[in-house]
Amino acid sequence: MKVSLFITCVCDMVYPTVGKHTVDILERVGCEVDFPTAQTCCGQPAFNSGYLDQSKKAMKQMMRAFEHSNYVVGPSGSCVGMLREYPKIFAGDEVWEKRAIDLANKSFELTEFLVDILGVVDVGSTFTGKVTYHPSCHMTRILGVKHAPIKLLQHIKGIDLVELPMKEDCCGFGGTFAIKNAAISTEMATEKSQHVSETEAHYLVGGDMACLMNIGGRMNREGKKVEIIHIAEILNWN
């Protein structure tokens, strides 16, 4: 099966090893992975800030970049969720609506692709440690991916997986929300940090690196020693 990697801005610029782990996992389960170099931002920051025309330029570039891909897989529920919104944004556009639908239909978050498309729940990972999982807002509410990450984590040999209290609560990141509403965002991140501490987990895992970065930053400032890792990393742990 041929798959194109959608790296996302945060992973590309800040956490590139997440992309490497994603490729390793996909290749291990039998996928042939390519990387269209014409890809850019999905347009979400500009779109959520109200700059529709500017965001459409990025979206059109993404549609061009992945035009010939069979599947598009990314390590971010938030960014893949944005790709799924393209058909609504370009509805009625005679030139771009069909291309938007095509990209949306073949785009998947990593765990969603593994479980729902490939039917894989065990990728052969082993991990020793107490882990809790943060279900990011966009991944669960926009993309609708709730069970796939848990299924994959439960099949990791040696893992001690504990549920995060108030797991549905937002971490306070929300892209530009954290910038425009810094005080509120900080309080939300503080609450999330407290909930993570209640689990006594040594590792916090999630499917959106931006959210993990926000929570990790708060916990680091509080002097808490919880390691923040993307789910691709723990699934690629041997």
Biggest pleated sheet: 4 strands, parallel
Radius of gyration: 17 Å
How helix-rich are the residues, as a percent range? Answer: 40-55%
Runs in which pLDDT lies below 50 for 5 or more consecutive residues are none
Oligomeric grouping of the chains: single chain
Question: What is the string of helix and strand elements?
Answer: EHHEHHEHHEHEHHEHHEHEH
Structure summary, number of beta strands: 8
N-to-C terminal Cα separation, in Å?
24 Å
**What is the averaged pLDDT score?**
96
- Shape annotation: globular
CATH topology of the largest domain: Rossmann fold
- Strand content bin: 15-25%
Structural class: alpha/beta
Query: Into how many domains do the coordinates divide?
Result: 2
Number of helices: 13
Keywords:
238 residues; alpha/beta; Rossmann fold; 2 domains; four-stranded parallel β-sheet; 13 helices; 15% strand
Write a structural description.
It is a single chain. With 238 residues, the protein is α/β, with parallel strands linked by helices. It folds into 2 domains: 2-116, Rossmann fold (3-Layer(aba) Sandwich); 123-235, 3-Layer(aba) Sandwich (Rossmann fold). The protein has helices spanning 9-13, 16-28, 44-48, 52-65, 77-89, 97-105, 110-117, 137-142, 148-154, 177-180, 182-199, 209-221, 231-235, and strands spanning 2-5, 32-34, 72-74, 107-109, 126-134, 157-162, 203-206, 227-230. It has a 4-stranded parallel β-sheet, with helices on both faces. A 4-stranded parallel β-sheet has the order 6-5-7-8, sandwiched between helices. Helix 5 packs antiparallel against helix 6 (97-105), helix 7 (110-117) crosses helix 9 (148-154) and helix 11 packs across helix 12 (209-221).
